[in-house]
Amino acid sequence: MALLQIVKYGDPILRTPAKEIPKVSSKIQKLAADMFDTMYAHVGVGLAAPQVGENKRLFVLDCSTDEQPQPQLVFINPVIIKKEGALISWEGCLSFPNVFIDVKRYSKLTVRAKDVKGRTFTLTPEPGSLLCRAIQHELDHLNGILFIDHLIDRFGADALLKENGLPAIDPSLILPEPDLDQILQCSI
Ligand code: ZN
Questions:
Q1: Calculated CA dihedral for residues 112, 114, 119, 122, nearest 10 degrees
Q2: Angle 181-182-183 (CA atoms, 0-180°, nearest 5)?
Q3: Residue 48 · residue 36 · CB < 8 Å
Q4: Alpha carbon 77 to chain centroid distance?
Q5: I need a surface site. Which of 6, 17, 51, 169 has the fewest CB within 10 A?
Q6: Ligand 1 centroid, distance to 141 Cα (angstroms)
Q7: How remote is the C-alpha of 61 from its chain's centroid?
Q8: 110 exposed, middle or buried (CB, 10 Å; 0-12, 13-18, 19+)?
Q9: Pair 175, 145: CB distance under 8 Å
Q10: Pairwise CA distance, residues 79 & 112, whole Å
Q11: Alpha-carbon span 188 to 4, nearest angstrom
Q12: pLDDT (0 to 100) of residue 188
């Protein structure tokens, strides 16, 4: 078991697109195992490689609850092949301690990736589930995108960041999401 250091918001690696993993080597398998250890130690449900300083397209998830255990999932070189619908998701991030905000997400998706043994799999999580939202959050990390880029209330988020000693929102990085906005306005 090895615990890795989690980088905090403000570190440039969190804004750097990660590189494809050409081969699922034993080194990558060890990284994934260490990322699970690190994630559990911080009571998180997901962790992406850039958050531990590794510029690689890999993230891990465990969306288990006390009532419902779930398998450990490793996503290597993941691609979302279908996404639709919209919802508002209450999220935090291990790189933003104590910051929880509402963000916009798709409500349904299908993702394809390689697992920790290098086998390709396709997954369509239950629409709106924690797993569905967490996949979007973690995959964003591999593209240098953070959950704050999908925020709904910029000034509320800024106040929370300040309270926790983190850098302010960069308004130029807030994503335009007209497709999500359209659905969310209809459903509110
Ligand atoms: Zn995160």
A1: -20
A2: 95
A3: no
A4: 14
A5: 17
A6: 7
A7: 9
A8: middle
A9: yes
A10: 5
A11: 41
A12: 44
Name the token pair of 72. 């450990």
Name the nearest CA neighbour of 110 among 151, 88, 139, 141: 139
Q: Which residues are catalytic?
A: 138
Cα 119 to middle of ligand 1, angstroms: 25
Query: Torsions phi, psi of 101, nearest 5?
Result: -140, 165
Tens-binned pLDDT, residue by residue, of the chain (188 aa): 799 999 999 999 999 999 999 999 999 999 999 999 999 999 999 999 999 999 999 999 999 988 888 999 999 999 999 999 999 999 999 999 999 999 999 999 999 999 999 999 999 999 999 999 999 999 999 999 999 999 999 999 999 999 999 999 999 999 999 989 999 985 54
How many Å lie between the centroid of ligand 1 and the Cα of residue 94?
Answer: 6
Cα 147 to averaged position of ligand 1 atoms, centre (Å): 7
The structure tokens 């929370």 sit at: 160
Per the structure block, which two tokens stand in for 114? Answer: 């390689």
Structural domains of the chain ordered from first start = 12-186 (3.90.45.10)
